[in-house]
# Entry
Amino acid sequence: MEFRIDSSELTDAVAWAARVLPARSPVPVLGGLLLESAEGRLRVSGLDHEASARIEVEADTVRDGRALVLGRRLHDICKVLPRGPVECAVEGARLSVTGGGARFGLSLLPLDDYPAPPGLPAFRGVVDAGAFAAAVGQVAVAAGRDDSLPVLTGIRLALDGTTMTLAATDRYRYAVRTLEWKPEGEEPQGGEGGADVVVPARRLTEIARSLASAGPVRLALDGGSVGFESEGTRTTTRLLEGRLPRHDKLFSLGEHAVAVTERAPLVEAVKRVAVVAEGDSPVQLAFGGDAVHLQAGYEDDVASQRLPAVLSQTEAMTVAFNPGYLLDALGSFDTDSVRFHLLGPGQRALITDRADGIHQHLLMSVKPLV
# Structure
């Protein structure tokens, strides 16, 4: 194998495929990246037991061939390569990487021990990569971090007609975001038109970020994995077993008050007053009249700030939230103002960006400050 390519293109391709490599693996070859050159193209592939990634770029291929090398080592080399053309070639039991007067040699890993990469699941449709990345980022903040409850570390991906629903919860908060997508592929087995699966949040976030500028992206899905494909790139990840609790009843508040306030000033105010909030100490929001009064702390160590707000009822209402959870929720919105749908102290509260509710974040209100 021998090919020539610009160093920046090689670096980008290696970095993209290396995202899925395990930090540690009892199987050495799973730390490898597979390089394949043929017909003016270079393909770089990586995989572990849970995910795979593949990218194809243009290259001047002198000799077709395949080589498996330690992926993170190759990535480190690419990051320090001089700018300009690079020549890569298999020389005996090594891959040489030469460019700008620098030369590196990498030992080859045994190709026979490398598992076959998983195929792409059945094509289901197309989604805009930018909109998808934004939606994933908005719900991922609510995903759990406790690996003893694996399903709660995932993001629900549900398909129903032309609507895609993404959702995540760690039992203390619940984020939901809907967006449009274009179904085009084959119907799943059984003839059911939709899908409802749970994807690891960390993996899905990485995938969404890496594809954010890719334009239309093909979505592939079956009972065991989900895949995404754009021009020159392909990635898959296994699904998590189980289902997230349904959010429909939780988000149905019945009769409630609505408070509207500017988002950015509220974020700054929460950060400011939370300086005196220790441990799980909450930040209190007292809505009434034309303002919201924020307060945190106890006894002598207290902080407060007043901001304009509009409450839909004449009777004042006070709620309190974990400041970290509240900031995560507010930071997931990109609108100028947010709406608080309030049942009362110690009850669930729903934060939305606008009336259509395409982005909703549920928080549990805690006991207000005395």
Observations:
- The radius of gyration is 25 Å.
- Residues 7 and 83 are 6 Å apart (CA to CA).
